[in-house]
Amino acid sequence: MITPPRWADNFLSWYCNPDIVEEVQGDAHELFQKRVRDSGPLQAKVFFIWDVIRFFRWSNIKRSKTTYSSNTMTMFKSYLTVGFRNALRHRLNSTINILGLSLALGVTITTFVFVDNMISADSFHVNKQRIFQLTNRIRTDNRIKTEVGLEDWSDTPIVLGPLLAAEQTAIESVVRIEFDGGAVRRGETVFNESLWFVDKDFMNMFSFPVLKGDRAALNSPSQIIITKEISDKYFGSEDPIGQQITIKFDETRKIEFTIGAVIDRTSGSSLYPQILISMQKFEDLKFKENYDWTYQTDATFIMLKPSTSVSVVAGAMDKYKVLQNEASPQWQIADFQFHPLEGLNLKGNTIVSAVSNGAHPAGLIALSVVSGLLLLLASFNYMNISIATVATRLKEIGIRKVIGGRKKEIIQQFLTENFLLCSISMAVGCLISYIFLLPGFNSLYPVNIPFHFSSGNVIFLFFGGLLLFIGFISGAYPAFYIASFTPISILRGKEKFGQRSLLSRILLTSQFVLAFTTIVGAFVFIDNSLYLKNKDWGYNHDQIVAVRTGDKEKYLAMRDRFTNNENVIGLAGTANHVGLYYQHKLVTHHEQQLDIVDFKVGFNYLETMNIRLKEGRFFDEQIESDHRESVVINEKFAEQMNWDEPLDQTFELDSTKMFVIGVVEDFHYDGFYNVLGPIIFHIVPDDEFQYLAIKVKPGQLNQTESSIKQAWSEIAPDDPYNGTIQDDVFSDFNRDNNANLKLIGFISGLTVILASLGLFGLVSFNITRRLKEFSVRKVFGANISQIFRLMNKDYVWILGISFAVGAPLGFILMNSLIQTIYPDPQAAGPIPFMVAVVIMLITVSITVGSQLKRIIKENPASTLRNE
Amino acid sequence: MKGTYLGELEELILLTVGVLYDRAYGVSIQDEIENQVGRKLNISAVHAVLKRLEEKGFISSSMGGATAERGGRRKRFFHLTSMGKKALDEANDLRTQLYNRIPKVALQFNTLPA
């Protein structure tokens, strides 16, 4: 029998209202057959197509309204009951589903809280839209070996702020921030604290909540404002308002202040004030005789008048640029920038010496991507397992359909079940995040992020979106797939299902690709961290203690006390100290500038610090020129200057001609984040000394340190002891590094667990399904290893492919990450790959092995008798 | 209910439904009209008119009579309702009345007017 063109026929049944499709199609077919008889197949086909086109009219397309009685609520109740019973019946699978999803959701929620916190930082300031930080961009064109371009500096001329406030009508107020430090004392309590000198409008511009006292306290220069932390530290439960506190800025400046107010530095702030002092006081104290355009203060904030545009002020800045550039040739400004307070914390990495610091945007993105991937992974698990378990529910679906359940309703049923599970997981995920993950994150990094969302809308959108996302990602495919079966084939037992589903294999493979990626990445990172831990610092850092002495008098006293100590091998005073304190400077050579790290030291410092001489000599107190114009440089300096014979070369430092007398090997002076740069050492007189470096005999370090502390409390009872064992100078770096290690370890552990859970669920299901087959094989004499091989053939392939894809991916990704963090990483070896393979093999064997036990224990008779 | 005005094609198909009595469905109606009236209609036009007539209440329908050449699909058979019959009668009456009122002379074509 000749049939009409299939596509036209299908098109007809697709568009036609199902209620009339039978008669319409029937007529079309009857006509077709008649025409085949009358005029031949070709013409019949053409006419059939024409008929189909003619039938394509709205009255045939439009669906007739159905009038089913609405028992939707009852059905939903039924879905929930059935879903709940099903979850209970397959306890193992439901647990795997909920556990996996909850973990991934916990990570996602934690990440979101963190990102939300970072993005909404400083949003509690009422005037945030009108507040801008004023920065200036400095030319770096004439520097050697630095990227040509502009550097955006937070430091701005100190005189600029008041000038702007006076001359620019669009500006309501200006606040400058000047950082300082000092020993703060109340009774016997003495600590070094960081101090902020700020203009008196600070508390009007920023909306830090005042807990006690007067918001306008800074109007009187004799009053200060402290944070709650400082208040607790010095006053405990006492009321601090009106109490006295002494701040010692240096030997000649020791001043009593009254506490005027206590503020709460909320977790939403990216500015970290501790003690606020009036800027008026800073000028009164006269650290310098005169403040002019050559002095840069640490930050300048402006607040515009309501409904004025920042461009008005920005357009008027040229005048100040000219003033500045004429007054200070050292600080040539290209232009001024206005950064809105909102989002300022995310620019912390692009503004030099920024006051507002937040996470690097790349870090936020990386974290979000990782938690998104984890979420996908967990959803894949869910999908895999629900496709697998659905085989046990085929009959239910068949019966539902026969009784009159429509496709739509079956889909509804499975989605409802899915959303039920997802909601449970989300609740558990919130708990996990609240109890474990967020506190864990806070303890790893120097942050304190509360479990808090920036607004109610955010909560609603985030959790609603998340539920929809995971609900549909994990549930849509199974639901639609299941609903598409025809009842007849289900009930006949014809529907073959879940056996070799290509999709579930692809999903499992992608899970393991991710697992391999993260685990190889983690071990590349661990490998690199261990390498950094044991890396040569370029000098022998053990057995050295550095004490901050502050001034000449105390330096001399300490020096005299320890010069003849039996445990001390050598000691030296210095203004800067390797690992603790250094300054950047520009030196000039043939009209070109080089950005260098400047160490101002005393005689014998290089010897005490065990810095390794490469050529030339160290400083000698007997040589008169060494006191003024000799410098020791490092290898990098010579390299960047292109000096083959660095000895006796000259350059200018602060308009003094300096002669190179020695070259030392490169060494690490500030963690491992920075590229080793050019360094110079030169001698300064002892009234500039800030530190005393002491080298101790091996084994005597702790004993000597306690005697140093003892001596300090006798020499300077007013000042807190501030000493560092040289081994600890990179402790910040090490803490960061350890935190990164733990975070990456946690995430890769989680991916492995999730992938294993997925594998476990699938294997256990497949074994259940093939239990009869295995029993028959056992009866016929198959041994365990044969069954094992049969069972694992698939998974070996999946693991193999995953490794081949995931391992190099993880290696490449982590390597590029490491290279952006550390300038001098080691080349990763084969160890991470081997470790990853071993770990995965172990987890997979445990996962599969635990299921294999079932087969071994199973008595074939009990399985086969069942029928 | 839409207006009960009966269009020309509607009347033709309504008459055919009556003629075919219990064999009136899409293809047979189309066939009958082609054979009796010599008018070629597209099947979709027939369906559209039948639908309209059913909405107006002139015909009713029922399913039945699957055949192999229809791929096992049933036909929708149409039957004249009493309202349909009334509509046909009225149309017929109207036509007869009007026809009868035509003056005899107007129908005499064999003699030329003076």
Can I get a quick summary?
The complex is a heterodimer of chains A (867) and B (114). By secondary structure, chain A is of the alpha+beta class.
Describe the structure.
The complex is a heterodimer of chains A (867) and B (114). Chain A has 867 residues and is an alpha+beta fold. Chain A folds into four domains: 6-61, no CATH class; 130-352, no CATH class; 361-532 and 733-864, no CATH class; 544-728, no CATH class. Chain A has a six-stranded mixed barrel with strand order 4-5-10-7-9-8. Chain A has a six-stranded mixed β-barrel with strand order 17-18-23-20-22-21. The radius of gyration of chain A is 37 Å and the shape is elongated. The two termini of chain A are 45 Å apart. The model of chain A has no long low-confidence stretch (mean pLDDT 84). Chain B is mainly alpha-helical and 114 residues long. Chain B has a single domain, classed as Arc Repressor Mutant, subunit A, CATH 1.10.10. Chain B is 51% helix and 11% strand. Chain B has helices at residues 8-20, 26-36, 43-56, 82-101; strands at residues 59-64, 75-80. Chain B has a two-stranded antiparallel ribbon. Chain B is elongated, with a radius of gyration of 18 Å. The N and C termini of chain B lie far apart (53 Å). The mean pLDDT of chain B is 87. The interface between A and B is medium-sized, with 20 and 21 residues.
